[in-house]
């Protein structure tokens, strides 16, 4: 780190370092003899559950076991963001490894990234904080039928919406419609803030250009999209404190910022290796949780009296289950362009390359209330659009592997996804954007391809083998093609035409559908940081891992609660979903 960067960075580190609670444990000898609830993974969902449980049951003790530490982990857009200068960014404690190559997209591999500190991926994510479409949950619920009925927990919109509200109370009054008014419409939340969601006090000067272009293309205009209706151009808040605009994450909201509780313990720098049932007691008691110290490699068991919850995230929850002997993807590529006759926009992201502008941006972020570009994270505007508003329907066709329950589950998913993709109110495409004149990403919200996460037999305690199988269902390429052709329409809109755009990516000669498919194969990202569904909530006969109460099929005292339980990807980024799952587990399902 350069001296300048170190100097810029120091105050932020100091401000953002989490308080060291007395309840932090670092050794087996510091633990209680047994815990009522043991949670494997102190991430977004795991800490939500631990907070709510330790609050609801003061006489019961809760232990969270986290691989990482209680440290400040700079997020992808956190200041003093060196990615603006192409210097790569501050390195964060994170899980990073490479996927298997995907043969259907030219054998390219993906960089796998997930959070690895108290708070998990919410510590490093892009702070784009939206909620899914109601139609996602109608689809989730259909996937549970006919095996589950009305007496089981419901995951339709009515069955989950309340928990999104509980997870982010301040978000239910977001406004508004254009650059000048967008930022004024929010009220800071006064509720105890696990995670606040607000629009930032800053947007780049050309922010409305593509927004207007989307509206000119015919996309419906929505003032905000958190109430279940999400087909159109949306304002999206940032998960941040409304005054300081410091990142809000689970390590703060569900641990450091709460009153100290003697019954809430966190064991750091330990890996949950597996859960093991004692001889003969599988029918009666929850499993032991086997833990490895990263410090001295010692292995020991933690006893859970009531329940074990695995919340280790999409890539690592399956590794714990697989080590215990207990039994998919979205995409992105971008259109890029330059304006040959831009308006007099100022400032623009390119200004971050100027020392004085950057220094002022950092200074502004350290003021209270915070101001300036660092109050922006990923983006605050996005297009969500259904397939019927883009193109006539493309019907999905099956393609999968050898396990009959997985095939049954996949076939059911394709039927439900066909309905979802035919629904003119259910988004199929997302295109978030922070500023115009650079690029428009295109996310496939409901890919039909399915991948796998498996233990590496040679290194079972190490990273799993991740095989996204991107575009293994070729319909995904057709869906992508339809989305990209639609998005290209923005260049022909009157608003964008004013500034004489020249499209730079894809190149001029990429015009035919075949050329565009090739371009998509070359550029599509395997997951837009929303990997999910690796321990899916589906009936056992359909290859599911957990039921609608999130209990692992056939296992006593064991649940999974994190983004791995999603049956299919929702039409949203996934952190709000992770919090809402934590809230729903606590509130609705009986722990004892
Ligand atoms: C770079 C990036 C950008 C993103 N951007 C956005 C965004 O802008 N908006 C949005 O809504 N979502 C975004 N997401 C997605 C979102 O943050 C995640 O889906 C969500 O936080 C996942 O929550 P989780 O509870 O499933 O897992 P996590 O929060 O990842 O928690 C899992 C925890 O388990 C720990 N762990 C793993 N294995 C073990 C083990 N064996 N023993 C003990 N502990 C273990 C991990 O260290 C981690 O702390 C992004 C994700 C990433 C990685
Ligand atoms: C991908 O790799 C496989 C196995 O190595 C090889 O057979 C195939 O030709 C490769 N495909 C491409 C497009 O390079
Ligand atoms: C944990 O308990 C299980 C079940 O009794 C046992 O098989 C395993 O050996 C124990 N592990 C350790 C490290 O003691
Ligand atoms: C687009 O703009 C960038 C940055 O100003 C410049 O480097 C590049 O040459 C431009 N490309 C075209 C095709 O005009």
Automatic annotation (TrEMBL):
<dbReference type="GO" id="GO:0050660">
    <property type="term" value="F:flavin adenine dinucleotide binding"/>
</dbReference>
<dbReference type="InterPro" id="IPR036188">
    <property type="entry name" value="FAD/NAD-bd_sf"/>
</dbReference>
<feature type="active site" description="Proton acceptor">
    <location>
        <position position="573"/>
    </location>
</feature>
<feature type="domain" description="Glucose-methanol-choline oxidoreductase N-terminal">
    <location>
        <begin position="313"/>
        <end position="327"/>
    </location>
</feature>
<keyword id="KW-0285">Flavoprotein</keyword>
<feature type="active site" description="Proton donor">
    <location>
        <position position="530"/>
    </location>
</feature>
<feature type="binding site">
    <location>
        <position position="272"/>
    </location>
    <ligand>
        <name>FAD</name>
    </ligand>
</feature>
<feature type="binding site">
    <location>
        <begin position="44"/>
        <end position="45"/>
    </location>
    <ligand>
        <name>FAD</name>
    </ligand>
</feature>
<dbReference type="InterPro" id="IPR012132">
    <property type="entry name" value="GMC_OxRdtase"/>
</dbReference>
<keyword id="KW-0274">FAD</keyword>
<dbReference type="InterPro" id="IPR007867">
    <property type="entry name" value="GMC_OxRtase_C"/>
</dbReference>
<protein>
    <recommendedName>
        <fullName>Glucose-methanol-choline oxidoreductase N-terminal domain-containing protein</fullName>
    </recommendedName>
</protein>
<dbReference type="InterPro" id="IPR000172">
    <property type="entry name" value="GMC_OxRdtase_N"/>
</dbReference>
<feature type="binding site">
    <location>
        <position position="528"/>
    </location>
    <ligand>
        <name>substrate</name>
    </ligand>
</feature>
<dbReference type="GO" id="GO:0044550">
    <property type="term" value="P:secondary metabolite biosynthetic process"/>
</dbReference>
<dbReference type="Pfam" id="PF05199">
    <property type="entry name" value="GMC_oxred_C"/>
</dbReference>
<dbReference type="Pfam" id="PF00732">
    <property type="entry name" value="GMC_oxred_N"/>
</dbReference>
<feature type="signal peptide">
    <location>
        <begin position="1"/>
        <end position="15"/>
    </location>
</feature>
<keyword id="KW-0732">Signal</keyword>
<dbReference type="GO" id="GO:0016614">
    <property type="term" value="F:oxidoreductase activity, acting on CH-OH group of donors"/>
</dbReference>
<comment type="similarity">
    <text>Belongs to the GMC oxidoreductase family.</text>
</comment>
């Amino acid at each position: 780190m350069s001296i300048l960067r170190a100097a810029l960075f120091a105050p932020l580190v100091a401000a953002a370092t989490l308080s060291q609670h007395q309840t932090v444990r670092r050794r087996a000898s510091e633990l209680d003899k047994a815990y009522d609830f043991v949670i494997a993974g102190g991430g977004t969902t795991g800490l939500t559950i631990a907070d709510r449980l330790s609050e609801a049951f003061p006489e019961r003790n809760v232990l969270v076991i986290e691989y990482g530490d209680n440290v400040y982990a700079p997020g992808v857009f956190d200041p003093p963001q060196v990615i603006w200068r192409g210097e790569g960014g501050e390195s964060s404690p994170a899980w990073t490894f490479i996927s298997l190559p995907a043969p259907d997209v030219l054998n390219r591999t993906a960089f796998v990234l997930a959070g690895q500190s108290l708070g998990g991926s919410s510590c490093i994510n892009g702070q784009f904080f939206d909620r899914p479409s109601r139609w996602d949950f109608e689809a989730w619920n259909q996937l549970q039928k006919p095996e589950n009925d009305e007496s089981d927990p419901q995951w339709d919109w009515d069955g989950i919406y309340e928990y999104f509200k509980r997870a982010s109370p301040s978000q239910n009054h977001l406004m508004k419609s254009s650059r000048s008014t967008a930022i004024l419409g929010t009220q800071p939340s006064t509720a105890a803030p696990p995670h606040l969601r607000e629009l930032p006090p800053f947007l780049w000067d050309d922010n409305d250009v593509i927004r207007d272009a989307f509206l000119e293309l015919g996309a419906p205009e929505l003032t905000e999209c958190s109430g279940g209706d999400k087909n159109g151009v949306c304002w999206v808040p940032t998960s941040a404190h409304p005054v300081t605009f410091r990142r809000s994450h689970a390590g703060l909201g569900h641990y450091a910022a709460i009153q100290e509780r003697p019954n809430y313990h966190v064991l750091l720098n330990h890996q949950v290796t597996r859960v093991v049932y004692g001889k003969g007691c599988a029918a009666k008691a929850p499993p032991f949780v086997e833990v490895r110290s990263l410090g001295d490699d010692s292995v020991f068991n933690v006893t859970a009296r009531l329940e074990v919850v695995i919340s280790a995230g999409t890539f690592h929850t399956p590794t714990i289950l697989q080590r215990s002997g207990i039994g998919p993807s979205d995409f992105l590529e971008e259109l890029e362009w330059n304006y040959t006759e831009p308006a007099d926009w100022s400032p623009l992201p390119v200004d971050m390359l100027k020392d004085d502008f950057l220094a002022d941006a950092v200074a502004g972020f350290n003021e209270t209330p915070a101001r300036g570009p660092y109050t922006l994270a990923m983006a605050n505007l996005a297009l969500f659009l259904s397939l019927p508003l883009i193109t006539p329907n493309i019907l999905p066709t099956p393609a999968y592997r050898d396990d009959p329950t997985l095939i049954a589950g996949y076939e059911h998913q394709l039927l439900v996804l066909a309905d979802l993709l035919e629904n003119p109110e259910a988004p199929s495409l997302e295109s978030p954007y922070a500023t115009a004149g650079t690029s428009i990403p295109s996310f496939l919200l409901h890919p039909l391809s399915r991948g796998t996460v498996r233990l590496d037999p040679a290194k079972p305690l190490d990273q799993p083998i991740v095989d996204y199988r991107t575009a293994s269902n070729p319909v995904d390429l057709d869906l992508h093609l339809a989305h990209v052709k639609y998005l290209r329409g923005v260049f022909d809109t009157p608003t964008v035409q004013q500034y004489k755009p020249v499209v730079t990516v894809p190149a001029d000669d990429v015009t035919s559908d075949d050329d565009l498919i090739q371009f998509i194969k070359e550029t599509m990202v395997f997951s837009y940081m929303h990997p999910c569904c690796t321990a899916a909530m589906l009936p056992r006969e359909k290859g599911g891992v957990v039921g609608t109460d999130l209990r692992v099929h056939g296992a006593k005292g064991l649940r999974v609660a994190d983004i791995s339980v999603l049956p299919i990807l929702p039409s949203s980024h996934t952190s709000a979903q992770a919090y809402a799952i934590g809230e729903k587990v606590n509130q609705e399902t009986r722990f004892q």
